[in-house]
């Protein structure tokens, strides 16, 4: 019989004793006894959520306890942070199917102890048969149902290529990294309340958008503690284990993907799969008050927006204004407004479109953009447009650190929760709905309300613009902060706020992650705030002329901070089942 017990357990953050008492530990157990995953000591039938850990030998923080623990088991075995990040992503593809994936894409930002930086791009690509107007009807109206749901919404998946490209920097054999995921898929695991809700919420879509009923559909509603077994997915993972990248992009798995496309009128072909390549790009690196910030370049918009926003705030003494006062929120809002206006006009895959990267990220441009900033008055998105330049809820993040000093930040996604909701028949994995991150028509908002233009129009083989912003901050040329989050267009502003919380407001890591967040993205011209955002500050902002809109949670930020003496603190966001593991 399944038993679920909630207990309070003091966490390891001695600097926040009050909060630590409130750390909620979810203990899941079953009378099925210990069912350990091979060589890991992890019991998928009995596990607890841990939000905060302090340790010295390495840490993994991700959206699910079993995935963080899978990563940790690899560190304990002598794997490095890259190995652990690969194992964690593969486990997430099983235990967190809403966002963890092999049918989606992602970005890895790394800083190795040798000083080498990594920016691995495994973003999905538009299929060869895609074209600019593929989501427009006969009258030229955009049909975003097609870019968001089902077969036609899927870009060519990049994750598996990304994992093998990353593995070049790992130490352990790939078969060791994938085994926890295979076990979790084959033997099953107990699902959390959050997963049960997610699966129930999407049930109708799963039924409608699949040609062969997936493991996610059953007769009775899912409940916390139910067992999820994914045999088809286990077999796909075994093909990847045995045949490497070709185990996904060629052979049986490719055949199953193309057959699924044929049954559902999708357009991904054998050639699209065979030709997919992850790309190692030049990392974005910029200084901030003596720190060095490393983040992902295009097609991540974060690689433009984060440097822009940090440069616009750098000389404005936000610390003196105080955390979440009307003054500091206004300043950050106006900064965000300006960056997101540029995003809509200028940003897209730089392999296909000439993006004025140098200008957009220059100190002079940041200064010039803030010239019309008025601390006494709300700006408007009609008055503030993109700059004049002379040159022509579901994603997931994981942060990993190992005792050798290697740091890894990965954000990976299917785009929406459970992606396109289409599972590849007999292969058991969900396909992304990343095509919606293109601008399907100039000015038509995507599912995150973002608008775009030519720079982000659909072309065959092009990567769609992303907000994912995995980020590492170096202090004295050593990893200091490893951070990132899901949240669609709110990703970059959440990373921005988290860095400001840590670097300017000197917050504890728990506070920097968990305090309420806000977001402005130029259009719509509103400040989005989380429900617990202070009412008095909202009222002050409203008086200044800002429109405030409350929304659900913003992001699920996973942060590791490493002190100069080697002490590691890892924190999983309280907004989900996020779990910090370490030793
Ligand atoms: O790449 C992007 O920007 C989006 N596909 C991310 C989607 C996302 O974060 C959804 N999560 N809540």
TrEMBL record:
Entry binding sites for L-glutamate: 123, 413-415, 437, 466-467, 488
Gene3D superfamilies, per the entry: 1.10.246.130, 3.60.20.40
GO biological process, one term: glutathione biosynthetic process
One Pfam family linked to the record: G_glu_transpept
Catalysis: reaction(s): an N-terminal (5-L-glutamyl)-[peptide] + an alpha-amino acid = 5-L-glutamyl amino acid + an N-terminal L-alpha-aminoacyl-[peptide]; an S-substituted glutathione + H2O = an S-substituted L-cysteinylglycine + L-glutamate; glutathione + H2O = L-cysteinylglycine + L-glutamate
Assembly with partners or alone: This enzyme consists of two polypeptide chains, which are synthesized in precursor form from a single polypeptide.
EC number: 2.3.2.2, 3.4.19.13
Protein name as it appears in the record: Glutathione hydrolase proenzyme
InterPro entries for this protein: GGT_bact (IPR051792), GGT_CS (IPR055262), GGT_lsub (IPR043138), GGT_peptidase (IPR000101), GGT_ssub_C (IPR043137), Ntn_hydrolases_N (IPR029055)
Family affiliation: Belongs to the gamma-glutamyltransferase family.
Keyword field: Acyltransferase, Glutathione biosynthesis, Hydrolase, Transferase, Zymogen
PTM note: Cleaved by autocatalysis into a large and a small subunit.
